[in-house]
Amino acid sequence: DAGISIATGTDAGNPLTLHGPAIYAEMEAMQKAGMTPMQVIVSSTAVAARAMGHEKRAGTIEKGKDADLVLVAGDPSADVANFRKVRWVVRSGVVRSIDDLHALAQNPQK
Prior knowledge:
The protein is α+β, with helices and mostly antiparallel strands. It is built from four helices and three strands; from the N terminus they run H-H-H-E-E-E-H. A three-stranded antiparallel sheet has the order 1-2-3. It starts with 20 loop residues before the first helix and ends with a helix.
């Protein structure tokens, strides 16, 4: 309400705070604390990019910016818990299903 920017982040890497799943818990905690799902999404994208000094190349979907995306099977603007339902990832122009990513994690030589 005071106009202070909040960037999403985690303590991933600490004991019992796993890289990957920790971000879901962080976003859900932000929503539970009173932020709207859209405020959490902006904090996790545009505000986080700005906090890291990367706002000219990332954080929003615009011409000329990196466009790494996740496609989920639910509406994260209704509930950020839907980010746990990743189905597709677009990274550097390559589209992969979650099943492909699981297979690659099991056998990274492919």
